[in-house]
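Project channel, design review

CF: Before we commit to the Arcobacter roscoffensis constructs, I'd like one complete example in the thread so the newer folks can see what an input/output pair looks like. Taking DUF2116 family Zn-ribbon domain-containing protein.
RD: sounds good, go ahead.
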Amino acid sequence: MANTCQYCSKKIPISKVFCSKECKENYFEKAIINIPKPFVKKLYFFCNEEEKEAEILKFCERHKWKEHLVKQKIEEIYLEYFK
Ligand SMILES: [Zn+2]
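CF: and here is what came back for DUF2116 family Zn-ribbon domain-containing protein:
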């Protein structure tokens, strides 16, 4: 029997919830990241790639959130609401 890591979906022993400390931290940090839908809309519909990168970077710095987590979340919102 095995579990899968709540963050990266890697197979792990049944007694564990995450495969590593990083995954645990990423999971909880990602959970508190809150991205406004209009921001996502702006990124995808009114920005070119360069502007999009710059906007995301500014957003991460302002909130002190990890860029790769913010990007994951932005993509999730995009797929859920705008696709
Ligand atoms: Zn993991």
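RD: helpful, thanks. The first strand starts at residue 2 and ends at 4.
CF: The first helix runs from residue 21 to 32.
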